[in-house]
Amino acid sequence: MPFIPHTADDIAKMLETIGVDSIDALFDEIPQELMIDGLPDVPAQASEMAVTRLMHERAARDSHDVNFIGAGAYEHHIPAVVWELTTRGEFYSAYTPYQAEASQGTLQVIYEYQTMMAALTGMEVSNASLYDGATALAESALMAVRLNRKSKSKRLLVPSTVSPRYRDTCRSLAGSQELKFELVRFADDSGVVSMDSFKAYDGEDITAVVIQQPNFFGRMEEVHEITNWAHANGALVIAVVNPTSLAVLCPPGEWGDKGADIVCGEGQPLGVPLSSGGPYYGFMTCSKKNVRQMPGRIVGRTVDLDGRSGYTLTLQAREQHIRRSRATSNICTNQGLVVTASTMYMTLLGAEGLARVAGACQSQTGKLVNALSAIDGVRPRFSGPQFHEAVLELDRPVGPVLEQLARRHIIGGFALDGDYPELGNALLVCATETRTDEDIDSYASALRDILAEAKVA
User: What is the 3-state secondary structure (H, E, C) of 386-417?
Assistant: First the structure.
């Protein structure tokens, strides 16, 4: 709603009608010790005119700087037709297709999306999306515990090469349900987790193993060996993947001898712009035998009495639709609008187009690493194959360097010292297909000048 229509008199009449003295009385079941006295960090209310002006000012602060940061949010070219179609009224205002007979268009879009995501990940079933990639991993962890009934430990092995934000979200959402996320360290020279680190857990009760591919550093984990080890030790495998990379990398459904059990990730790279932090959506796919433990909604295709194709919500394992005690999740909202954009994006590019995007990303990142590593005081932190991210080590703290790059309208990357202090002055850089050779040359020139000026000073 663009405004709140109820006046103080309206609210007083409604409270009188239902026999309640105040709005606070509607929440009297909340224990007093859980109540807070105000929200000191939330600004005071403002008029519609003031809020509109504030939003315009905030929007104007979004820069058009040349971007080399990734770390889970990626700048890709989005054909103009994607959001031209997505923002048509038929899609733009549609939320959840509860009435199948009136929502055939929306249901078909979701069905097409599910089909493409299942094909992309090499799995059999996809849901209609979740909130974002981080919560998708948390939901996957809970799903793994429900599936792996032979395991009683609720222990999940999570490499430290999995996104720190994803790990934080898992602890917040699933840690309270007694899930234990045990960190597996990566090798200092390679930036991936060695098999020896996993073999230290041989014979132990492990519920699931999480593998991110490419990992947070853009490096390639030994997914086939890890998957086979996990299955040999009675653990399920949860794959966290970048959907763009799957156009050129082995899909999780083909990892090892049996493939991953659950696949999840962030759908933002598929046609969703970097819009000040959102909205994003999480995707999840799995094998058909595990579908009843998958959170969210699944759209299926059927035929009516006249033999015409029709679409309907096939599976809705949510507390709104079934007994709360049997629900798989209560945060399985379908992010319909961004899913629609991704469906348009994948349809337009097709398999060949998506592979070209992935190939260009990998190529430009290689050029970026070579150009920056040629500068005195910069070197690659890890060796080996990468996708469209890489870690560089500087000869000085990263933060001040990034600040100076920002003054030159270059967003130079993501400083890793906060999440990985053991890496020292480490910088995560990213180049997608939107970064031209000229962009890379400009970055290298600016960084060279900044490092040289610091030495002179």
Answer: ECCEEEEEECCCHHHHHHHHHHCCEECCEECC
Structure tokens at 361: 């990303």
Confidence at residue 60, expressed as pLDDT on a 0 to 100 scale: 85
Structure tokens that stand for 220 in this block: 């390639």
* Bond prior to 269 in cis (omega within 30° of 0): no
The alpha carbon torsion through 23, 24, 25, 31 (nearest 10 deg) reads 150
Strand bridging mode 297-303 / 155-159: unpaired
Put residue 246 in one of left, alpha, beta given phi > 0 → left and psi -120 to 50 → alpha: alpha
Q: What is the pTM of this model?
A: 0.88
Q: Structure tokens of 70?
A: 């990734």
Find out whether 212 and 161 touch, Cβ atoms under 8 Å.
yes
Query: pLDDT over 90 for what percent of the chain?
Result: 74
The tokens for 57 are 């000012």
Question: 428: exposed, middle or buried (C-beta count within 10 Å: 0-12, 13-18, 19+)?
Answer: buried
Q: Are 382 and 219 in contact (CB under 8 A)?
A: yes
